[in-house]
Amino acid sequence: MFDWQTWITLGVSLAIAAVCVAVLSGVAALLMRLIARRRPGVYSALAPTRRRLRVALAIVGAWIAVAISLPSGEALAVISHAFFVATIAAVGWLLGALLNLAIERMLRYYPIDVADNRVARRVRTQVLIIRRLGHVVIGVLTVGAVLLTFPGAQTIGASLLASAGLVSVVAGIAAQSTLANVFAGMQLAFSDAIRVDDVVIVEGEWGRIEEITLTYVVVGIWDQRRLVVPSTYFTTTPFQNWTRQGSELLGAVELDVDWSVSPSELRKELDRVLTRTSLWDKRTSNVQVTDATGGFVRVRVLVSAADAGILWDLRCFVREQLVEWLANSQDMVLPRQRVRVLSEEPSSTGRKRRPSGDTPGVFSGSPDADERGQQFTGAVPVQRTEVPPSTP
Question: Is residue 354 part of a domain?
Answer without folding.
Answer: no
